[in-house]
Design goal:
Strand content: 15-25%
Number of strands: 12
Number of helices: 11
Order of helices and strands: HHEHHEEEHEEHEEEEHHEHHHE
Radius of gyration: 31 Å
CATH superfamily of the largest domain: Pseudouridine synthase I, catalytic domain, C-terminal subdomain
Number of domains: 2
Helix content: 25-40%
CATH topology of the largest domain: Alpha-Beta Plaits
């Protein structure tokens, strides 16, 4: 009786196992039948030209420049016209990247050295990414870029290179008419700055050099925030020059990194000192804990001039494989682009748009005092930030 029960159990299990095997067999047959295609379809596919394997790409530093007028900055911004949008469109059209890679730039290891904001231009911006290095890449890229955005050159870099992380310093320029330095109420386009006035301006700019707490020169930063401290290597003004009946002066500031609005606020405060609206000691007071009401100069004249990679150049620039990121061969093209696209935008904005003239009359309205008793600054988007 026991033997009979055991046989029944074994038989039942065999039947169940058999059913399972047959089910799998029929499922595989059905799948194979569904996957079969007509012979004509197979032959047609064989006749189609094969897509060539994508060219092997290398990590590069790409030197580019742009006039920021009409753009909402360098970095991609949803539904806004940006420099990066135009760059990725050009890469897609030139078949340097796929649509997916352009939609997700991190797959290309893409990184910008500095994030210029609305209407801010760049003479020498650096981006790092993986790109093919065949001859003619720059020409192909430029053929798909608008004329106000140019690629100047590229160089092979180490696989771990990051255009932002490896950057030692950045140099910006700020260009404006010298009548902004005239005494209050005497602003006129015929004004020409005296050597004494220019020297006072130069000395005021030097007060920014060194490591200082610039919490008063940006927004959303407090005195105790460690990131409010920034190191300014050099801040100087060049010789004035004339253009279209106006005298202009260019300031150049080199620093490790900059915060939103920092450069424009530094220039504005220096102008206020030279005009006699405030005493020079206001600069030192701005480094203290009190939040002051400081003006902000127009964004029109702000330009990213250069990105510096001194440590990288010393370590890898002469290893026999990589080049130094100094771009001497591209300098002529950069200057030509600056003279044709960047500076004319500034001159037009000053001559016809009266950018500095309209702003300078508002300068005496600031208290340069404790900001707790003053209306909060309007948050503007144009400026610069390397964070």
């Amino acid at each position: 009786m026991v033997c009979s029960s055991a046989s029944t159990v074994v038989l039942s299990r065999s039947i169940l196992l058999g059913r399972h095997v047959w089910r799998r067999f029929f499922a595989m047959e059905a799948a194979e039948t569904n996957n079969k295609r007509p012979l004509e379809e197979v032959e047609d596919e064989a006749k189609r030209p094969r897509v060539e394997a994508r060219v092997r790409r290398k990590k590069v530093a790409l030197l580019m420049g742009y006039s920021g007028q009409g753009y909402f900055g360098m970095q991609r911004n949803h539904q806004m016209r940006t420099i990066e949008d135009e760059l990725f469109k050009a890469m897609l059209k030139a078949d340097f990247a796929s649509q997916e890679e352009c939609d997700f730039p991190h797959t290309l290891f893409f990184q910008r050295a500095a994030r210029t904001d609305k209407n801010v231009s760049a003479a020498k911006q650096i981006v790092s990414l993986k790109l093919c290095t065949d001859p003619g890449v720059i020409e192909q890229l430029n053929s798909h870029l608008p004329p106000e955005i140019r690629a100047f050159g590229l160089k092979r870099v180490t696989k771990n290179f990051n255009s932002k992380g490896n950057c030692d310093a950045r140099t910006y320029s700020y260009t404006f008419p010298t009548f902004a330095l005239s005494p209050v109420g005497q602003e006129d386009e015929s004004f020409r700055a005296t050597p004494e006035l220019l020297e006072k301006f130069a000395q005021t700019l030097k007060m920014y050099e060194g490591t200082k707490n610039f919490h008063n020169f940006t927004c959303k930063k407090t005195f105790v925030d460690p990131s409010s401290k920034r190191y300014i290597v050099k801040f100087e003004c060049l010789k004035p020059y004339e253009k279209d009946g106006l005298e202009y002066i260019e300031c150049q500031v080199k620093g490790q990194s900059f915060m939103m609005h920092q450069i424009r606020k530094m220039v504005a405060l220096a102008i206020a000192v030279v005009k006699g609206i405030v005493e020079p000691d206001i600069v030192s007071k701005a480094y203290e804990s009190n939040r002051l009401d400081l003006p902000m100069a127009p964004g029109l004249g702000l330009v990213l001039q250069e990105v510096h990679y001194d440590r990288y150049n010393r370590k890898f620039g002469k290893d026999g494989v990589h080049e130094t990121l100094t771009w001497e061969a591209e300098e002529e093209a950069v200057q030509k682009f600056k003279e044709e696209f960047i500076l004319p935008t500034i001159y037009e904005g000053e001559k016809n748009g009266k950018s500095m003239m309209n702003w300078i009359v508002t300068l005496p309205l600031h208290t340069f005092d404790d900001k707790r008793n003053v209306k909060k600054d309007e948050e503007e988007e144009d400026g610069v930030s390397d964070e």
